[in-house]
Amino acid sequence: SVGGGGPGCLRAEKPSTRDRGKAAAAALQDAMDPAEDAARPADLGGAALKFEVLATDGRARATRLTLRHHDCRTPMFMPVGTQGTVKGLTSKQLEELECQVILGNTYHLENRPGSALLREFGGLPSFMNWKRGTLTDSGGFQMVSLLDLADITEEGVAFQSPVDGSQMMLTPERSMQIQNDIGADIMMALDDVVSSVCVEDARFEEATHRTLRWIDRCIAAHSRPSEQALFGIVQGGLDPRLRGICLEGLKARDDKLPGYAIGGLAGGEEKAAFCRVVSQCTAALPPNKPRYVMGVGYPLDLVVCSALGADMYDCVYPSRTARFGTALVPEGVLRLKTAAMATDYRPIDSECDCLVCKKYTRAYLHAKITKEPNAASLLTYHNIRYQMRLCQDMHQAILSHEFTPFVQNFVRRQYPNGDVPDWVREALQLAQIDV
Q1: Active site includes 314?
Q2: pTM for the full model?
């Protein structure tokens, strides 16, 4: 017998983590439809990505970003799957919603399930059965979100695990190693991140110069540059001088950086200051590389940043706000918990093509949102689709050279009484768009 308990019985040997990972990865590969070629890495001629600007309209850009696992179009919003999953949705549903890239977090993935396990599975895409693009944050943002658990030095940042209290030392070298194991198409350099509302000028000065020292360590430690694109991150707080220093420092390393991100924003700073930084950075970054504004997810912010020349965005906002019963609509937001929704038999958005808008009424979702978890999943499904459609519409408007009227109509629907905030007017004026 096998696995029995008596003398002379043969005991089944427990497979190792390595063996289990290889077997699971092989099973996933066998299960793939041969027609799903997008699941297999593309041949990019030794480059980690290819980038082409298809059209411009003012400062806005419609581009093609070809990764190993997906051919993307920008402007592009990337849902956040911190630990390999977008809360409430399956990988198949994300494909249905036409998501192009999913974001994972290095710090959290290393804590659970661990980069060693992900490596044995063949990387995060195989682990989560996701056939399109992936991007991993470096773990730098946790210097802000887990500040009380972090000790930042020139070597790196020491975190105390919120799970079991153990210590993790995240250096630029360790961040690269973890991200190489995770295997995302795009990986971010470890930067020294300071909250945008910090009042210590000296801390921003230190972080800006440290970010440039760390980028050299990241470049040296990156072991898969032909497979994974390393993006540098522009830091400097709200100070134009420091942003300029970081921009010039990163551009001096342009041959090693397939793309750039604008970090340290969307943390509670004034919107006008946020837009000025985005405008400064997009105007100075190389035109032949993708530009990623980190942590941005409000629909209006996506439109404004795209008008200023940015390409890529990520945020937990669409899924998080869904869990509070809020749906994204062209007029802004729809709060489904309010009493008026109880007898409203319309869909969330009559213009939306998603399953939720085709099958369910506002009244149904109102009745379920506080009682059943699947209601939050339905709202997440709709909100992600809203973001995908918005980006697709921006892409098409830029291709058609109709981006200015698109923006004007978008803002008009958000503010039908004409009470457009000053920061929106000022930001769009930087893009030569009058609202």
Answers
A1: yes
A2: 0.89
